[in-house]
Design a protein that fits this description.
Layout (H helix, E strand, L loop, with lengths): L2 H16 L3 H18 L32 H14 L10 H17 L24 H17 L5 H17 E3 L5 E3 L2 E2 L14 H6 L2 E2 L3 H19 L2
Antiparallel strand pairs: 1-2, 3-4
Helix pairs in contact: 1-2, 1-3, 2-4, 3-5, 5-6, 5-8
Amino acid sequence: WLDGIYMEAPVYARFSQMFDRPAGFDDVANQIIFIESHTRDAKTGLLYHGWDESRKEEWADPKTGCSKSFWGRSMGWYVMGIVDVLDFMPAAHPRREVLASIFQSVCKAVANYQDSETGLWYQVLDQGKRPGNYLEASASSMFVYALAKGVRKGYLGKEYLGVARKGYDGIVRHLIKVDPDGLVNLTQICSVAGLGGPQRRNGTFEYYVKEPIATNDLKGVGPFILASLEMELLRTAK
Protein backbone atom coordinates (compact mmCIF):
# COMPACT_ATOMS: atom_id res chain seq x y z
CA TRP A 1 0.00 0.00 0.00
CA LEU A 2 1.21 3.50 -0.75
CA ASP A 3 0.11 4.59 2.74
CA GLY A 4 2.84 2.52 4.36
CA ILE A 5 5.63 4.62 2.87
CA TYR A 6 4.76 7.57 5.11
CA MET A 7 4.10 5.36 8.12
CA GLU A 8 7.55 3.81 7.92
CA ALA A 9 10.07 5.50 5.66
CA PRO A 10 10.67 8.95 7.22
CA VAL A 11 11.19 7.62 10.75
CA TYR A 12 13.29 4.74 9.40
CA ALA A 13 15.49 7.21 7.49
CA ARG A 14 15.82 9.45 10.55
CA PHE A 15 16.74 6.43 12.69
CA SER A 16 19.35 5.40 10.13
CA GLN A 17 20.87 8.87 10.24
CA MET A 18 20.85 9.19 14.03
CA PHE A 19 22.38 5.77 14.67
CA ASP A 20 24.65 5.60 11.62
CA ARG A 21 22.92 2.65 9.96
CA PRO A 22 23.66 3.15 6.24
CA ALA A 23 21.91 -0.08 5.23
CA GLY A 24 18.68 1.49 6.44
CA PHE A 25 18.85 4.12 3.72
CA ASP A 26 19.14 1.37 1.11
CA ASP A 27 16.03 -0.30 2.50
CA VAL A 28 14.08 2.97 2.56
CA ALA A 29 15.02 3.74 -1.04
CA ASN A 30 14.13 0.22 -2.17
CA GLN A 31 10.66 0.42 -0.61
CA ILE A 32 9.86 3.78 -2.23
CA ILE A 33 11.17 2.73 -5.64
CA PHE A 34 9.59 -0.73 -5.53
CA ILE A 35 6.02 0.36 -4.81
CA GLU A 36 6.18 3.13 -7.42
CA SER A 37 7.42 0.73 -10.09
CA HIS A 38 4.46 -1.59 -9.51
CA THR A 39 1.65 0.92 -8.97
CA ARG A 40 2.39 3.66 -11.52
CA ASP A 41 -0.12 4.02 -14.33
CA ALA A 42 1.73 4.81 -17.55
CA LYS A 43 -1.11 6.88 -19.01
CA THR A 44 -1.83 9.23 -16.10
CA GLY A 45 1.33 9.02 -14.02
CA LEU A 46 -0.89 8.40 -10.98
CA LEU A 47 -0.27 5.55 -8.55
CA TYR A 48 -2.80 2.88 -7.64
CA HIS A 49 -3.49 2.52 -3.93
CA GLY A 50 -2.01 -0.96 -3.60
CA TRP A 51 -0.32 -3.89 -5.30
CA ASP A 52 -0.52 -7.61 -4.58
CA GLU A 53 2.29 -9.78 -5.91
CA SER A 54 0.16 -12.93 -5.61
CA ARG A 55 -2.81 -11.41 -7.50
CA LYS A 56 -5.05 -13.25 -5.04
CA GLU A 57 -6.53 -10.35 -3.09
CA GLU A 58 -10.11 -9.47 -3.91
CA TRP A 59 -9.10 -5.96 -4.92
CA ALA A 60 -6.14 -6.94 -7.13
CA ASP A 61 -6.23 -6.93 -10.92
CA PRO A 62 -5.48 -10.53 -12.02
CA LYS A 63 -2.91 -9.34 -14.58
CA THR A 64 -1.16 -6.40 -12.88
CA GLY A 65 -1.84 -7.05 -9.20
CA CYS A 66 -2.82 -3.39 -8.77
CA SER A 67 -5.92 -2.16 -7.02
CA LYS A 68 -8.65 -0.49 -9.02
CA SER A 69 -8.50 3.21 -8.13
CA PHE A 70 -6.27 6.21 -7.55
CA TRP A 71 -7.18 7.15 -3.99
CA GLY A 72 -6.13 10.70 -3.18
CA ARG A 73 -4.90 10.23 0.36
CA SER A 74 -2.77 7.20 -0.48
CA MET A 75 -0.85 9.32 -2.99
CA GLY A 76 -0.75 12.11 -0.42
CA TRP A 77 0.95 9.83 2.09
CA TYR A 78 3.39 8.74 -0.60
CA VAL A 79 4.60 12.18 -1.67
CA MET A 80 4.79 13.36 1.94
CA GLY A 81 6.88 10.29 2.70
CA ILE A 82 9.39 10.99 -0.06
CA VAL A 83 9.83 14.69 0.66
CA ASP A 84 10.38 13.94 4.36
CA VAL A 85 12.78 11.06 3.67
CA LEU A 86 14.94 13.41 1.61
CA ASP A 87 15.56 15.43 4.78
CA PHE A 88 17.64 12.53 6.10
CA MET A 89 18.92 10.72 3.00
CA PRO A 90 22.68 11.37 2.59
CA ALA A 91 23.57 13.70 -0.27
CA ALA A 92 25.94 11.10 -1.69
CA HIS A 93 23.53 8.17 -1.52
CA PRO A 94 23.40 6.55 -4.98
CA ARG A 95 19.60 6.46 -5.01
CA ARG A 96 18.87 9.92 -3.65
CA GLU A 97 18.48 11.35 -7.16
CA VAL A 98 16.18 8.47 -8.11
CA LEU A 99 13.92 9.34 -5.19
CA ALA A 100 13.95 13.01 -6.18
CA SER A 101 13.06 12.05 -9.75
CA ILE A 102 10.14 9.88 -8.61
CA PHE A 103 8.94 12.73 -6.39
CA GLN A 104 9.03 15.13 -9.35
CA SER A 105 7.19 12.68 -11.60
CA VAL A 106 4.42 11.99 -9.09
CA CYS A 107 4.03 15.69 -8.27
CA LYS A 108 3.62 16.43 -11.98
CA ALA A 109 0.79 13.91 -12.16
CA VAL A 110 -0.78 15.33 -9.01
CA ALA A 111 -0.69 18.86 -10.44
CA ASN A 112 -2.38 17.62 -13.62
CA TYR A 113 -5.38 16.44 -11.59
CA GLN A 114 -5.86 19.56 -9.49
CA ASP A 115 -9.42 20.84 -9.85
CA SER A 116 -9.15 23.99 -11.96
CA GLU A 117 -12.08 25.72 -10.27
CA THR A 118 -11.32 25.18 -6.58
CA GLY A 119 -7.63 24.20 -6.54
CA LEU A 120 -8.50 21.07 -4.57
CA TRP A 121 -8.20 17.35 -5.30
CA TYR A 122 -10.91 14.70 -5.44
CA GLN A 123 -11.27 11.64 -3.24
CA VAL A 124 -10.75 9.50 -6.37
CA LEU A 125 -8.26 11.62 -8.26
CA ASP A 126 -9.04 10.90 -11.89
CA GLN A 127 -12.83 10.76 -11.66
CA GLY A 128 -13.47 14.51 -11.45
CA LYS A 129 -17.10 15.37 -11.11
CA ARG A 130 -18.38 11.80 -11.32
CA PRO A 131 -21.50 11.55 -9.13
CA GLY A 132 -20.58 10.71 -5.55
CA ASN A 133 -17.01 11.95 -5.77
CA TYR A 134 -16.03 14.93 -3.62
CA LEU A 135 -13.19 17.36 -3.00
CA GLU A 136 -11.28 15.80 -0.11
CA ALA A 137 -9.40 17.71 2.58
CA SER A 138 -6.67 15.33 3.73
CA ALA A 139 -5.32 14.57 0.24
CA SER A 140 -5.51 18.25 -0.70
CA SER A 141 -3.57 19.22 2.44
CA MET A 142 -0.96 16.51 1.87
CA PHE A 143 -0.40 17.61 -1.71
CA VAL A 144 -0.03 21.25 -0.71
CA TYR A 145 2.49 20.29 1.97
CA ALA A 146 4.55 18.13 -0.37
CA LEU A 147 4.48 20.63 -3.24
CA ALA A 148 5.33 23.62 -1.05
CA LYS A 149 8.14 21.79 0.73
CA GLY A 150 9.39 20.45 -2.60
CA VAL A 151 9.68 24.02 -3.92
CA ARG A 152 11.32 25.27 -0.72
CA LYS A 153 13.88 22.48 -0.75
CA GLY A 154 14.62 22.86 -4.45
CA TYR A 155 13.27 19.50 -5.60
CA LEU A 156 10.53 21.17 -7.65
CA GLY A 157 10.57 24.17 -9.95
CA LYS A 158 8.99 27.49 -8.99
CA GLU A 159 6.01 26.73 -11.21
CA TYR A 160 4.72 24.37 -8.53
CA LEU A 161 4.43 27.23 -6.07
CA GLY A 162 1.34 28.40 -7.91
CA VAL A 163 -0.16 24.92 -7.66
CA ALA A 164 0.50 24.85 -3.91
CA ARG A 165 -0.91 28.33 -3.36
CA LYS A 166 -4.04 27.58 -5.35
CA GLY A 167 -4.51 24.38 -3.37
CA TYR A 168 -4.02 26.08 -0.02
CA ASP A 169 -6.37 28.92 -0.91
CA GLY A 170 -8.91 26.31 -1.98
CA ILE A 171 -8.72 24.54 1.38
CA VAL A 172 -9.20 27.78 3.28
CA ARG A 173 -11.96 29.02 1.01
CA HIS A 174 -13.97 25.83 0.56
CA LEU A 175 -13.15 23.39 3.37
CA ILE A 176 -12.49 25.55 6.44
CA LYS A 177 -15.55 26.48 8.47
CA VAL A 178 -15.38 28.82 11.48
CA ASP A 179 -18.12 28.27 14.04
CA PRO A 180 -19.84 31.03 16.07
CA ASP A 181 -17.32 30.57 18.90
CA GLY A 182 -14.44 31.22 16.53
CA LEU A 183 -13.25 27.61 16.39
CA VAL A 184 -11.71 26.57 13.07
CA ASN A 185 -12.96 23.30 11.56
CA LEU A 186 -11.61 21.32 8.61
CA THR A 187 -14.42 19.59 6.73
CA GLN A 188 -14.73 16.89 4.05
CA ILE A 189 -12.10 14.50 5.36
CA CYS A 190 -12.33 10.84 4.40
CA SER A 191 -12.54 9.19 7.81
CA VAL A 192 -10.94 5.90 6.79
CA ALA A 193 -10.27 3.79 3.73
CA GLY A 194 -8.22 0.70 3.01
CA LEU A 195 -7.99 -2.46 0.96
CA GLY A 196 -9.09 -5.98 1.85
CA GLY A 197 -9.62 -7.24 5.37
CA PRO A 198 -12.89 -8.35 6.97
CA GLN A 199 -14.54 -5.12 5.78
CA ARG A 200 -14.17 -6.40 2.19
CA ARG A 201 -12.73 -3.13 0.94
CA ASN A 202 -12.59 -3.85 -2.78
CA GLY A 203 -10.90 -0.69 -4.06
CA THR A 204 -13.65 0.38 -6.46
CA PHE A 205 -14.76 3.97 -7.00
CA GLU A 206 -18.02 3.16 -5.24
CA TYR A 207 -16.13 1.89 -2.21
CA TYR A 208 -13.99 5.01 -1.73
CA VAL A 209 -16.83 7.49 -2.06
CA LYS A 210 -19.07 5.63 0.40
CA GLU A 211 -16.64 5.63 3.32
CA PRO A 212 -17.61 8.08 6.13
CA ILE A 213 -16.76 11.76 5.70
CA ALA A 214 -15.67 13.55 8.86
CA THR A 215 -14.84 16.99 10.22
CA ASN A 216 -11.55 17.53 12.08
CA ASP A 217 -10.30 13.98 11.63
CA LEU A 218 -6.61 14.13 12.55
CA LYS A 219 -5.56 12.53 9.26
CA GLY A 220 -6.71 15.80 7.70
CA VAL A 221 -5.95 18.29 10.47
CA GLY A 222 -2.32 17.18 10.86
CA PRO A 223 -1.46 17.59 7.16
CA PHE A 224 -3.34 20.90 7.05
CA ILE A 225 -1.16 22.23 9.89
CA LEU A 226 1.96 21.01 8.08
CA ALA A 227 0.76 22.60 4.83
CA SER A 228 0.08 25.87 6.66
CA LEU A 229 3.59 25.90 8.12
CA GLU A 230 5.14 25.27 4.70
CA MET A 231 3.11 28.03 3.10
CA GLU A 232 4.22 30.41 5.86
CA LEU A 233 7.85 29.43 5.35
CA LEU A 234 7.53 30.21 1.65
CA ARG A 235 5.77 33.49 2.38
CA THR A 236 8.52 34.70 4.69
CA ALA A 237 11.45 33.35 2.66
CA LYS A 238 14.00 35.93 1.57
